[in-house]
Every structure is written in structure tokens, then in C-alpha cells.
Amino acid sequence: MNSEKTKEQCIAEMNARRERRIAKRKQQERLIEEGVLCGFSLTYHGACAQVAVPHTGRKDARCDEHKDIMCTNCGNRASHECDYIGMLVCGFPLCKDCSHPHRKRVK
């Protein structure tokens, strides 16, 4: 009986932690939409989520670190990093309309 109660408590705690993570992620997404937080997408990390300076109230607001980063292909403002994995992650800055070509190795 005691072990079942402990199991139920563990499940309840796990569910509570999951709900807190979901609520935190939704709040972060809302703040990015409002332009309060930086929405630059870092490869395999998600949104930067630092405070956007200056607060512009736009979805594409950026922090000091990412405000001047331009797309490698077209020169427009970058929105994310290339997530191609070769030996390392590419990480080149890209805008939402561009993709980054990678050469395949020929044997």
C-alpha cells in the first residue's frame, strides 16, 4: 500500500513538472510574439529568449547579440541558424526564406 502511494506521488510530481515546463514554454512563446524576447532560433537550442533591445513590439525583435546578424545567402535579417550536421553543426545564419546548400562528399 505504501509503495503504491509513493508511485502515485511520483507520477503526480512528474505530471506537475511537465505542466510547469509547458506553461513556461507557452509564456516564452507569447513574449517572443509580443517582441519582448529575442526570437532568433539557435540550432538545437530553440529560441534565444534574451530580452529584446530596444523593445519594438514586433515578432522579429532581437537582443543585442542577434540584432545585426544577416542571412549568409541574401543579406536580409537572419531568423535562425542552419541546422545541417556534417562533422559539426553548420550554424550559418539564415533568413526564413533561404536554405543553405551543402555539398555531398563523393567517394
Structural description of this entry:
The protein has 107 residues and is α+β, with helices and mostly antiparallel strands. The protein has a domain of 67 residues. It is built from 1 helix and 4 strands. A two-stranded antiparallel sheet has the order 1-2. It has a two-stranded antiparallel sheet with strand order 3-4. A hairpin with a 3-residue loop joins strand 1 and strand 2. The longest helix has 32 residues. The radius of gyration is 20 Å and the shape is flat.
Which secondary structure elements does this structure contain, and how are they paired or packed?
Blueprint (H helix, E strand, L loop, with lengths): L1 H32 L7 E2 L3 E2 L32 E2 L11 E2 L13
Antiparallel strand pairs: 1-2, 3-4
Please give a handful of descriptors for the protein shown.
107 residues, alpha+beta, two-stranded antiparallel ribbon, two-stranded antiparallel sheet, 1 helix, 4 strands, 7% strand
Can you describe this structure in just a few lines?
By secondary structure, the chain is an alpha+beta fold. The chain has one helix at about 1-35, and strands at about 40, 45, 80, 95.
Major sheet summary line: 2 strands, antiparallel
Strand order within the widest beta sheet: 1-2
Q: Determine Rg (CA atoms, Å).
A: 20 Å
**Structural class designation:** alpha+beta
Helix content: 25-40%
Number of helices, where a helix is a run of at least 4 consecutive DSSP H or I residues: 1
Shape: flat
Q: State the end-to-end distance.
A: 63 Å
Would you tell me the overall average pLDDT? 83
SSE series: HEEEE
Q: List the uncertain runs.
A: none
Strand content: 5-15%
How many β strands by DSSP?
A: 4
